[in-house]
Amino acid sequence: MTQDTRAQEFVESFERLRAEVEKVIVGHREIIDHVLIGMFAGGHVLLEGVPGLGKTLLIKTLAEGLELSFSRIQFTPDLMPADIIGTNIIVEDADGRKHFQFQQGPIFAHILLADEINRATPKTQSALLEGMQEAAVTVGGVSRPLPAPFFVLATQNPIEMEGTYPLPEAQLDRFLFKLRVRYPAIEELNTIIDRTTQARAVNVEQVMSGARVMAFRELIREVPIADHVRALASTIIMATHPLWQQAPEATRRFVRYGASPRGAQALVLGAKVRALTEGRFNVSIDDLRALATPALRHRIILNFEGEAEGIDTDTLIAQIVGSAEAVTAQGKEAFVR
Amino acid sequence: MANSDTLERLVRRVSAQVRRRRVEHYALRGAFWGSIVAVVVLVLKAPLAGWALWLAAGAVAIGTLAGALWGGLKRTSTADAARLADRAWGLQDRVATVMEWANRPERTPLVESLVADTLARIERLEPRAAARRVVPRDGRFLPVPLAVAVLLALAPAIPVPSGRLPDFSAGAGEEQTEQRPGSTMLDDRARPATKDRLKSPVFEEKDFAARAGGTGAAMSGDLSAIFKDTSLSAQRPDFQSFLKKGDERLKLLEQADRLPDLQSDFTTSQYRMMFKKSKALSGGMRPDQISPQKLKELLEEMERLGRKGGSTWQGDASEGMEALEGGQPDRAMEAMQRALDKMRAQEEASRSGKNLKGGRESSRGGNSRDKRGGGGEGSGPDDQDFGEGEGLLPGKGRSNSPKGEATQRLRGNPYDVGVEGESRRGRKEGYDTNLTGKAGQMGSRLQYLGVIGQYRKMMEDAIARESVPRDFHTQIKDYFQALDER
Question: Which of B24, B94, B97, B99 to mutate to test the interface with A (most CBs of A within 10 A)?
């Protein structure tokens, strides 16, 4: 099978999977695309939005469209790390001898839905850290690999802050994208009402296996990126740091910490997936522009002035990208001068 | 690469377009600056005569040619041309990526697909300009200097002014005066000149010569000749006396701290005002005849002045208020008198080091004796309260206030309050203070341990409810922890 054919197959699979999800989820095309891009890039995705917008439903539908195991954990303040990872329990064999046996937790699944992740204590949240980064968990000194592909989709509610524990920066950085689920438009709301209040069952078909997902992940890493596009990605990341000499004024005023190198990886990997989904074999500057916001919005930490002024991270990122393009001489008249 | 020719042709085409645009761009800039030079040349048309037009035209032509040459010689890199082609035809960075990756040893199999896709798209491209024309900012204003140059070329030559100064010599002035006879006003103006003429011209010439070290002959254009006919001309300059006066003024300025404080004039002092008001209030009446409302206003004013800091009479004013509220006007009057005495003492202390009238030192000198005699300068009805020792230090005045050492007086008045303190050791070092006197024995209306718990709860609520930055949580909690440990 040629690369061209594989790429074509990827585009078709991507579109079929999106169509299956859209059987249930109305609107949110960009959110669905970004979730799928995150999955094929091999990252984890955090969805933020008020209750009732279909975050959990989207993830459940996606799991139904894939031939993959699925677990859901409802995070609560009394949830313990062992409730996620699993624990050693004493079992008795046929000879009557007792020994410890590892009882797997819900993390041992291909797709893990961490619902309302910010309701659990930081100790429990951090139980996910190793699994998200290493695709393995260590219990009782034994490291146990998680099934591949392993994909964490977490949701959190931004307004109901009573009794919540904001995710630590280290854990936020492990999410490839942070997506903000917004309220649907009135036409979409009408469709939601029609779909959900009529006696008509929606059947979501399984369109992709885990092995194919892994094969596509390898294909995506082969997408070439030009030097000037890569340089722009690096410049965007550097422009989020207030101490960088060429950082824009907005960054210097409102940002305490900028994005880590993981941010650059997320940006470029996501851009590669996006390029392939559009039938392109190379990364373009448009891909970086489109994915800079979801890849960086949780990696930029505002300072006190930024918090006090109510600075929106998305607006800030748009300014940072514009400034980075100016720094890398991507201006319209750069060549003539 | 098999199909690299297609890509290279595209890149060459774009490079040629960029070069053409650069030639236009820099030629316009060169023409602008050349026309500026042409304008300058045409302004100087008179001395340059027939050469001016040729020089101006040459400047414009040379500027244009130099700019075009500069633009044409600038190189365009292949990568830049490829990026420009991507942008011009919406190729999404395909050409630039192919130019970079086609010959790399680590190229992935997808690169072949990329090359094929890019070539197919290039074949379908419609020929059009990849680099758009960019008019430079100075090029936009090119018509202005060009129009000015044409106008100057058509207009007659501008006369160039000569560099000589007008002749201010006396002879010339006389000639002008003689040319305007018949005017009485001119006659009046000319009269002082006639008077000056009586002075010996020889003597004046000698003075100027001695000062300037010159020959004394007034040359044409010599500005010093202007002063010859004035009254100053007869005086010898005395720089030594001028410097001496300057030194004296500087010394005076160095002693600024001994100068009178004109801003806080004694006639507007707090004590003076309060004394006048109290006199106007009492007017020889008994305490029971005085309006309690007016007395209260006066005491409030004194208390307000006392709150500004560094005052000693605030307690007396407060005591007077309490007495007035308790229906004891005589005690209130006494308290007011004590407060007035303290105000006066403080006023004297603050003015004593400034040699000001009314200061303690001056009041003890000869001037005070003059005042007592009633014939001294500045003595009047307003100064009658400045008798020696009256209301000054304890034991010298006629006040009914407790007298003696300050500590004794403090204890003698049950309403006086003192503050004693001791340093506190522990996790948080600090300084604890306790009230003494009668107020110190009274219990606080708010129990400390009671309110600090409430405040702590309010703080927790505020942190949870409001968007306080996370870094400030610890600082805020530490602060309340420190309060709790007291």
Answer: B97
The sign of the CA dihedral A313, A319, A322, A328 is negative
Which residues of chain B make contact with A335, given a CB cutoff of 8 A? 18, 76, 80-81, 83-84, 131
User: Is there a single domain that holds both residue A33 and residue A144?
Assistant: yes
* Interface touch A281/B117, C-beta < 8 Å: yes
**Average pLDDT estimate for B244-271:** 63
Same domain, A193 and A319: no
* Within a domain: A321: yes
Please give the residue that has the higher pLDDT: either B429 or A226.
A226
Contacts of A333 in chain B (CB under 8 A): 134
| Per-position DSSP letters for B322-368, written without gaps between them | HHHHTT-HHHHHHHHHHHHHHHHHHHHHHHGGGT-TT-HHHHHSHHH
- In angstroms, the separation between the Cα of residue B142 and the nearest Cα of chain A is 19
What crossing angle do the helices spanning A55-65 and A29-41 adopt, rounded to 10°? Answer: 50
CB contact under 8 A, B83 and A228: yes
CB contact under 8 A, B93 and A337: no
Model-wide pTM > 0.80: no
Which of B110, B111, B137 best probes binding to A when mutated, by most A CB atoms within 10 angstroms? B110
Contacting residues for A277 by C-beta, under 8 A, at least 6 apart: A10, A11, A14, A33, A36, A37
Residue B446 pLDDT: 61
Interchain CB distance below 8 Å, B101 and A224: yes
Could you give the C-alpha distances from A287 to A41, A266, A295, A321, B212, in angstroms and in order?
Answer: 14, 12, 12, 12, 83
pLDDT in tens, A168-226: 887 888 999 999 988 888 888 888 888 878 777 778 888 888 899 999 999 999 999 99
Q: Which of A115-119, A171-175, B432-436, B469-473 has the lowest mean pLDDT?
A: B432-436
For CA atoms B190, B191, B193, B194, the dihedral sign is positive
Of A216, A243, A268, the domain-final residue? A216
Does A337 fall in a domain? no
User: Of the candidates B333, B319, B344, which has an alpha carbon nearest to the alpha carbon of residue B282?
Assistant: B333
Alpha helices by DSSP H, listed for chain A, are: 3-24, 29-41, 55-65, 81-85, 122-125, 127-134, 169-172, 186-196, 210-220, 227-238, 249-254, 261-277, 285-296, 304-309, 313-327
Q: Which domain holds residue A244?
A: 224-327
CA–CA min distance A196, chain B (Å): 36
Q: Which residues of A touch B464 (CB under 8 A)?
A: 161-162
Rounded CA separation B16/A149 (Å): 51
Residue A66 lies in a domain: yes
Q: Which of A166, A281, A336 sits opposite B114 (nearest CB)?
A: A281
Q: What's the CATH number where A295 sits?
A: 1.10.8.80
Distance CA B473, CA B454 (A): 18
Domain tally for chain A? 2
Predicted local confidence at residue B417, as pLDDT:
61
Out of B18, B96, B110, closest to residue A226 by CB: B96
Is some CB atom of chain B closer than 8 A to the CB atom of A335?
Answer: yes
Residue-wise pLDDT tens digits, B282-328: 666 666 677 788 888 888 888 887 776 667 777 888 888 888 888 88
Confidence of residue A36 (pLDDT cuts 50, 70, 90): very high
Residue B432 pLDDT: 65
**Prior bond of A51 cis (ω within 30°):** no
Looking at chain A from residue 221 to 240, which residues have their Cβ under 8 Å from any Cβ of chain B? 222-229
pLDDT tens string A228-269: 999 999 999 999 999 998 899 999 999 999 999 999 999 999
A2 — alpha (psi -120 to 50), left (phi > 0) or beta? Answer: beta
Within a domain: A102? no
